[in-house]
Amino acid sequence: MASYILLEQARDIQALVLDVDGILSDGFVTLTNNGDEIKSFDIRDGLGMKLVQQAGMKVIIITGRKSHIVEKRMSDLGVDLVYQGREDKGVALTEACQQLGLSPEDCLYMGDDWPDLSAFSIAGMKVTVPNGHLEVRRRADLVTQATGGRGAVREICDMLLMSKGVYDALLEKYAATPH
User: Fold this and answer.
1) pTM here?
2) Which residue stretches of the chain are H helix?
3) Strand order from edge to edge, sheet including 58-62
4) Measured distance CA(114)–CA(100) in Å, rounded
5) φ and ψ of 2, to 5 deg
6) Cα R_g (the chain), whole angstroms
């Protein structure tokens, strides 16, 4: 889990900003014979996103591709903002922050490849996955243990909840004995 220094850094984060391919999904593009795309999302990541929202944080998606699958999944999760088809993710992050009254420094940005570097350059905290590109890993404050699409987002959500001191209280809601 994250060090004390990283937990301190995460304490002031107000928004979790996520890339999709390679972060929320495994980064593979799977096509059916009809040309339809298939994406898999880890259910634990979805719960983590909902938990950080319960803790008062915003969740923002910024992806370079456009996909109905992403639109549907993020709508189901109640994500605050979804930006699709955005090649310059730094510009999209700036726009999202303006829309929500935040600064990019209030954001933890999680990405895995070169298109994410413009957002990395302005975000307050930068996170990637172990199979993220070398240049992204070099610039990250934290590299998760889990890979993209396999619980990496949940790992960061848990860290954010711990940094804000609400992890145990949220866990207790699930662990409490029913009456």
Assistant:
1) 0.94
2) 4-10, 43-54, 68-77, 89-100, 117-120, 134-139, 152-163, 167-175
3) 81-83, 58-62, 15-18, 107-110, 125-128, 142-143
4) 25
5) -65, 150
6) 16
Distance CA 44, CA 52 (A): 12
Q: Which residues pair with 37 in a beta bridge?
A: 31
Query: Quick one: tokens of 21?
Result: 């391919």
Q: Is the pLDDT of residue 11 over 70?
A: yes
> Strand pairing of 107-110 and 15-18?
parallel
- Tokens 């319960």 — which residue? 54
Percent of the chain clearing pLDDT 90 (strictly above): 84
What are the distances in angstroms from CA 22 to CA 19, 57, 95, 126?
A: 7, 22, 23, 15
Structure confidence at residue 148 as a pLDDT band (50, 70, 90) = very high
What is the rounded distance in angstroms from the CA atom of residue 75 to the CA atom of residue 82? 9
Summarize the confidence of residues 89-95 as an average pLDDT.
97
Distance CA 95, CA 62 (A): 11
Query: In Å, what is the CA distance from 118 to each residue of 14, 100, 112, 113, 125?
Result: 19, 19, 12, 10, 13
